[in-house]
Specification:
The complex is a heterodimer of chains A (115) and B (112). Chain A has 115 residues and is mostly beta strands. Chain A has no helices and 13 strands. Chain B contains no helices and eleven strands. The chains are: A mainly beta (115), B mainly beta (112). The interface between A and B is medium-sized, with 28 and 24 residues.
């Protein structure tokens, strides 16, 4: 039973294309996230959604559009892909209750390579 | 300067050694996380703590809120502990409660 699942695991595409990464969690969490890990392994928040509402948009280009159809899903669509978008993208989820967060559960990551 | 600083960046140890990884942060936090990432692998949450000390098997995490400092200790290290260990903090105000700010990670290699 995978708690947070992302697809695809690998994505190779050419500059200018549009692609999507899907994320689903079966933990019943109300908050989901997208993180980007660059070539130096540094992780950075991109988006955070709580109960399908966008909470954090951390200066991400508007070519990146997250969509949360329900609390269990947070998909990431990327338009007009650029070389600099090559990275590993991690989805995660947690439960926020009374202002306090539970530990995060991460997906296995999607390695995006733009050529 | 990153809001979260880890040291050392790289650490090589012999099997059985006691290991300490340090994390200092400069912002107010509601919680601090220690994460583990094996090469080419996913990210696993080891600890989430806001005060004191937590222990799980051979791993111990401590935090000193006044000094804005946390340590991750591994006792009787083993080659399977080889991984990147990442410190991350969660803010304590408004939207910052909904994001983690990460350190750059410590690459630990434990040799047999």
């Amino acid at each position: 039973d995978t708690a947070v699942s992302q697809t695809p695991k690998y994505l190779v595409t050419q500059m200018g294309n549009d692609k999507s990464i899907k994320c689903e969690q079966n933990l019943g969490h109300d908050t989901m996230y997208w993180y980007k890990q660059d070539s130096k392994k540094f992780l950075k928040i991109m988006f955070s959604y709580n109960n399908k509402e966008l909470i954090i948009n951390e200066t991400v280009p508007n070519r990146f559009s997250p969509k949360s159809p329900d609390k269990a899903h947070l998909n990431l669509h990327i338009n007009s892909l650029e070389l600099g978008d090559s990275a590993v993208y991690f989805c995660a989820s947690s439960q926020v209750k009374g202002g306090k967060n539970s530990p995060l559960h991460f997906g296995n990551g999607t390695r995006l390579t733009v050529t | 300067k990153n809001e979260v600083e880890q040291s050392p960046q790289n650490l090589t140890a012999q099997e059985g050694e006691f290991i300490t990884i340090n994390c200092s942060y400069s912002v107010g936090i509601s919680a601090l996380h220690w994460l583990q990432q094996h090469p080419g692998g996913g990210i696993v949450s080891l600890f989430m703590l806001s005060s004191g000390k937590k222990k799980h098997g051979r791993l111990i995490a401590t935090i000193n809120i006044q000094e804005k400092h946390s340590s991750l200790h591994i006792t009787a290290s083993h080659p399977r502990d080889s991984a990147v260990y990442i410190c991350a903090v969660r803010g304590n105000s408004g939207g910052s409660n909904y994001k983690l700010t990460f350190g750059k990670g410590t690459l630990l290699t434990v040799n047999p």
